Structures are given as C-alpha cells and as structure tokens.
Amino acid sequence: MGIHRKTSSLNTLLKEFNNDISAITVVDLVSRLGDKMNKTTIYRILNKLEEDSILHSFFGKNGLKWYAKCDGCCNSKPESILNKFRPHFQCLSCGKIDRLNIEMKLPKVTDQKVSVSQLLIQGRCESCN
Amino acid sequence: MGIHRKTSSLNTLLKEFNNDISAITVVDLVSRLGDKMNKTTIYRILNKLEEDSILHSFFGKNGLKWYAKCDGCCNSKPESILNKFRPHFQCLSCGKIDRLNIEMKLPKVTDQKVSVSQLLIQGRCESCN
DNA sequence: AAATTAATGCAACTCAGTTGCAAAAATAAG
DNA sequence: CTTATTTTTGCAACTGAGTTGCATTAATTT
Question: Are the beta carbons of B73 and B101 closer than 8 angstroms?
C-alpha cells in the first residue's frame, strides 16, 4: 500500500482528478498547486496513488509524464492478466490528452504476464483543425 | 525532408537498427556509439529519421525515449488516416522492449485526424519469470 | 576547384524528476 | 489527554536526458 495517512496535500491533489476527466501533466499540477505544496510532495503523492492503482501514468509527446484516474484499466498485481484497455488521444498541436470513450480488448498473443497497457493515439484534435 | 546528406554517422546509426528488431533507447545508442560520434549528432540524426518516417519513437517506463524501425505503422503526413498499428511489449522488470508480431486495427471512433498511434503493453517477459 | 549548404563537435545550458535530511503532521500507544 | 512512533512534508542540492548556439568540418552543387 502506498498511501498511509490522510493529509490535506493528498486531498488537494485528489480533487484535481475529480474536476478533470482528461489526463494531467505533472508539470501542470506543479504549476497549479505549487503554492499550496512543494513539488517534491506532488511527485511523491502521485507515485503512491499509482502504486495503489488509483491513478495511472504514461508518457506523452515530449516525454512529459501524464496521470489519469484509473478505473479498472490497470492492475497493481503484476500476476493478473488484463484484457481490456482504454485509449487516450493526444493532439500533437495543442498537446492536450483526453481519454476516449471506448474499451478495447487486448490481443491474446503474449506468453508474458500483462499488468498495464496503454494505447496513445496521436493526431490533430477537432478544435485545432 | 529531414535527411539531406549521406554521412558516415548516418550509416553507422542505421546499422544499429538493422542489427536489432527490437526498440532501442537513445541512451543505449549513445553508450554504444558515443566514441564514434557526438551525442548531439545522435539526437539530431534520430530526429531527422523520424521526420522521414524511417524510425518512430515513443516513451517507455521511465520516461526514456525509444526508437524502432518504422514499417507502415506511422505516417509523416498528419492529414492521413491510419487504421493499423503494432503493439510493443515492455518488461517492467528488465525494461526491454520488443515489437509484437501482430497488427491491430485502430478503432474508428474519433473525428480527429490520426497520424501516430502506439500501444505499449507492459508486464513481465518470459525470461524474467 | 571554388562556392554553397548541411552536418558535426563541443561546451554550456535547461528542466523534469530525484535524494537526503531535518522539521512537522498524523496516527498509535499509554 | 499526553507521549511516543512513524509517516509526510519542505527545502536545497543534485541528476541526467535532451537541447541550443556557434564555430568547424564535410558533403554536395556550380
């Protein structure tokens, strides 16, 4: 278990993910919450929330780390076999990432044990067209 | 067009991708070729090769940039609609990334124009089990 | 062979993410 | 409620992948 104590920093951070359905950059979180808590704290809490499978993360276009709320799309136990995942879409022009409202099935092709899977689709979003 | 001139640095770099079917980290390339050419050169050539759709890149587990040979899985023209992609598998234990030998179809769900798509499946590979 | 343009090396830089340590806050024990 | 224990936080310094500017060198054009 990653999270042990309920602190105000934790609550503040969690709120950001309730307000927003799309994914958020750590950099963005730091600039939004940087005056309320230290950036190290933000990084550490995000780490723990991912350990607990409350959030999941991936790296977008420029190597920036993105976090999104996790709802069954990944599993903390590496032994489990996942077979579904949700694609994210990143606009290469404005950089924004949203989760698409589809559930995809993972191909049953690997002998490997799968714990996370992420499909990042990149292109140009509607508003940038 | 990214690449304009045939230089020995370019050839040396391209050889690395002929020798290896799996994806390679830039960091790895720098440590392999760092005595033959400057790391800046490596970064710049990789950039150009991606512009020309000869290589494509994505970010793995620790935010490291990976490159792999591109064969129709991405397109330099952002206007085109892609409908297939190839998943990569990264072992969370040893970090290695290989391309899986399947071709997947992209869900026809977005109004957006798609230029790149990458599915990164993560778990434990056979040799780490 | 000379002129042009692109590629390279080098050194210094940027900035996302990390680490160690002391102080503060949260929970547990008495 | 008070004290002891353990986790969390802030701060400052650090790490390292990736970038930038500029002078030099190499490839291509004329």
Answer: no
